[in-house]
């Protein structure tokens, strides 16, 4: 089978990790694969290491400039014609729009929605634009993969496409030989791995941490991994409230570097306004970390009381109390962390890949039959 993957950025991220896991399975199947994205970053390197084709599209920047979009579509269509795929797989909203509108059903397209632009927590204007765009683009793909049951329900709520055009395939990842270990009488390492930009809420973690008794703060330390526009504001807040000695900021790390940091940690936190089905949470669980995560969108499908705590972004006191309960109780961290590891392993790359390739094979058979 020949599969063409189209995604906006080649930098590290949840959607890019999904594609990487699928590429490893393609290698086992001896498929022919081409990936197109902006830049020559992590996904580009991994694609080449696996022996697949990578095409750079520097016009893939989030913009409403019609000239830029036109050039992005031209470069994409040219690559499609040259590669002649059996399946085109588009990931993320921007490449999903460009990828579907550019082909207009000339090729069978599968669009994976890593969360919707109209989901809970987004602005009213963004919701309206996204709903109109997704309804129109929905005509130009064979199937839409939703990464959570919540996302499918949300799409049905706004009548994006017919029910039979959507399938739920929850994200999966496999981390080998990584597990955290719990020690008594040590500083509790809290880690937050994400870009400093919406929908992530790094500031909220510091605001909650500020409410903790000083004796509890002294027993813990926060590491923020990532870069982005809001990073300076979070750094300034830590200084303003005398929290800097409890906080470390790193730049964006390689995936292995981020996993190394997570493996040395004791508690994983991800606070967001909205999410798809975040790979970082699954990775943290597989490593054996208890997780504290915002109760938004489909996250409740992977996180429950056995693996961590779902928190309300508006209840900062609850977030603070949750942090304190994990910081002061090593037995709780160990018990829930072990449970998180067991449940996290259910969301593995093998399961995800098998479900995706079953879908690809079915579409391929039907398309070939019709042509």
Which structural traits does this protein have?
alpha/beta, Rossmann fold, 2 domains, 6-stranded parallel β-sheet
Characterization of this structure:
This protein has two domains: 2-173 and 349-370, 3-Layer(aba) Sandwich (Rossmann fold); 188-344, Glycogen Phosphorylase B (Rossmann fold). With 371 residues, the protein is an alpha/beta fold. The chain has helices at residues 14-29, 42-49, 66-83, 93-103, 124-137, 149-157, 202-210, 214-217, 231-240, 255-263, 279-287, 316-327, 330-344, 349-370, and strands at residues 2-9, 32-38, 53-56, 87-91, 109-113, 143-146, 166-168, 188-193, 220-225, 247-250, 267-270, 291-294, 308-311. Helix 3 (66-83) packs across helix 4 (93-103) and helix 11 (279-287) crosses helix 13 (330-344). The mean pLDDT is 94. A seven-stranded parallel beta sheet has the order 3-2-1-4-5-6-7, with helices on both faces. The chain has 14 helices and 13 strands. Helix content is 45%, strand content 17%.
Low-confidence stretches: none
Number of strands: 13
Helix amount, in percent?
A: 40-55%
Beta fraction of the residues?
15-25%
Supply Rg.
21 Å
Secondary-structure element string:
EHEHEHEHEHEHEEHHEHEHEHEEHHH
Estimated structural class: alpha/beta
Please summarize the sheet with the most strands.
Answer: 7 strands, parallel
């Amino acid at each position: 089978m020949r599969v063409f993957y189209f995604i906006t950025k080649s930098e590290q991220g949840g959607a890019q990790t999904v594609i990487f896991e699928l590429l490893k399975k393609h290698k086992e199947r001896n498929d022919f694969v081409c990936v197109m994205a902006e830049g020559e970053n992590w996904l580009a390197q991994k694609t080449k290491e696996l022996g697949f084709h990578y095409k750079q599209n520097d016009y893939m920047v989030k913009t409403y400039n019609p000239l830029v979009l036109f050039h992005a579509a031209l470069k994409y269509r040219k690559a499609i014609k040259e590669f002649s795929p059996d399946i085109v797989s588009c990931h993320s909203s921007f490449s999903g729009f460009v990828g579907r509108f550019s082909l207009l059903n000339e090729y069978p397209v599968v669009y994976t929605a890593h969360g919707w632009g109209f989901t809970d927590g987004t602005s009213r204007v963004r919701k309206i634009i996204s709903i109109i765009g997704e309804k129109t683009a929905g005509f130009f793909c064979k199937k839409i993969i939703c990464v959570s049951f919540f996302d499918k329900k949300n799409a049905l709520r706004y009548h994006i496409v017919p029910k039979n055009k959507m399938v739920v395939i929850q994200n999966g990842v496999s981390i080998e030989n990584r597990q955290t270990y719990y020690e008594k009488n040590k500083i509790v390492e809290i880690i937050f791995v994400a870009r400093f930009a919406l929908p992530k809420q790094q500031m909220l973690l510091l605001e909650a941490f500020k409410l903790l008794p000083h004796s509890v703060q002294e027993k813990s330390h926060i590491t923020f991994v990532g870069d982005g526009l809001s990073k300076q504001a979070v750094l300034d807040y830590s200084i303003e409230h005398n929290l800097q000695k409890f906080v470390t900021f790193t730049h964006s790390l390689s995936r292995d570097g981020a996993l190394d940091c997570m493996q040395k940690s004791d508690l994983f936190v991800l606070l967001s306004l909205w999410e798809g089905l975040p790979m970082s949470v699954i990775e943290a669980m597989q490593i054996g970390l208890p997780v504290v995560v915002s109760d938004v969108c489909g996250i409740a499908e992977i996180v429950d009381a056995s693996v961590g705590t779902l928190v309300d972004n508006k209840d900062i006191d609850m977030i603070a109390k949750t942090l304190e309960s994990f910081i002061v109780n090593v037995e709780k961290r160990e018990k829930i962390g072990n449970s998180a590891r067991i449940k996290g392993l259910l969301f593995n790359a093998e399961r995800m890949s098998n479900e995706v390739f079953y879908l690809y094979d079915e579409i391929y058979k039907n398309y070939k039959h019709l042509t």
